[in-house]
Amino acid sequence: MAEVAAVGAPPPRVKRIELDRPWAWLNAGWRDMLGAPGVSFLYGVLFAAFGWVATTGLWFSGAIYLVLPMAAGFLILGPILAVGLYDVSRKRQRGEKPTLSSALRAYRVNTSQIALMGVALLLLFLAWVRIAALIFFLFFGLHPPSLQDLVGQTFFSSDSLGFLVFGTAIGALLSAFAFALSAISIPLLLDRPQAHVVTAIGTSFKAIGENLYPMAFWAALIVVFIGAGLVTLYVGLIVTLPLIGHATWHAYRDLVDWT
Length: 259
Fold this sequence. Notes:
mainly alpha, 2 strands
């Protein structure tokens, strides 16, 4: 994909990286998280609280069968929700002191373009929830299993094999597209206020195309860390989501050169 830059701004250059670079991003993200624990863990608590509130809402609305697609939404919406974490890492890299107020206001650096990315990811998430619901009803009919039977009928019944294969395949495709769309695009928009969303998305796709195996490895690590947070009933997200957020900033800095 051709690189597209904002008018008057030098085009970004995507760098080639080694397969093991994601470990360095996680290491740098860990340092940022410990260097700004107040902001980082507050974001983590908010992520976990969102999961608890959303799950409770699904329970009371009788749509608890959507809890798995909703949980997968952390992979789709996480990049836009972590703007403040990127700001923390950016300030630490510049030798500045990150604060909660600056993290919460970070989107103002490039409001319209970051908002466009947020809308795109939100629409993708809503499409995924709708598709997941249709797949669920296609296999289970109009009477979904109760909460007590949900896990057993979904994961341990021979009748659910087709559902698992088909649903996982569709979810993987949408998640892969969301990852390609947002792998480094939102940190780029934060770092370069003059950049356009087209520049950011084009650079994100190019970064993956130029570094397919390292970025596939990075995507797998994200799934593992976020999955670990989800299986602990969202408690683990208090650590894993800020860690991934900070590491994503370092992935952007490692992959993109503006000189």
